[in-house]
């Protein structure tokens, strides 16, 4: 399996493809404490005003806080708003 992963990484590097696109890496971008954008995710597992759990291709991301909302989402990315107090990544 490691050999296959190395080969894939060499292929991505040679073609100069962004790693997040080629390997389906999840990107989380925070704008202060009140907004976050999650890109390249699989599904939303839990959605409450205090916690949002998102399944990624490599694990789970848990965003905790108060008055959390998802104003918009697509199959590739979503925006979270509210008072964000923490994030946990489980692989």
Describe what this molecule looks like in 3D.
With 91 residues, this protein is of the alpha+beta class. 20% of the residues lie in helices and 53% in strands. The protein has two helices and six strands; from the N terminus they run ααββββββ. The chain has a six-stranded antiparallel beta sheet, with no helix packed on it. A hairpin with a 3-residue loop joins strand 3 and strand 4. The longest helix has 14 residues. It is elongated, with a radius of gyration of 15 Å. It starts with a helix and ends with a strand. The model has no long low-confidence stretch (mean pLDDT 86).
Largest sheet: 6 strands, antiparallel
Quaternary structure = single chain
Q: Give the structural class.
A: alpha+beta
Report the helical percentage: 10-25%
Mean pLDDT over all positions: 86
Per DSSP, the total helix count is 2
Report the end-to-end length measured between terminal Cα atoms: 17 Å
Architecture blueprint of SSEs:
Blueprint: H1 2-15, H2 19-22, E1 27-31, E2 35-39, E3 43-47, E4 51-55, E5 60-73, E6 77-90
Antiparallel strand pairs: 1-2, 2-6, 3-4, 4-5, 5-6
Question: Features of this protein?
Answer:
alpha+beta; 6-stranded antiparallel β-sheet; 91 residues; 20% helix
Short description:
Helices cover 20% and strands 53% of the residues. The chain has helices at 2-15, 19-22, and strands at 27-31, 35-39, 43-47, 51-55, 60-73, 77-90.
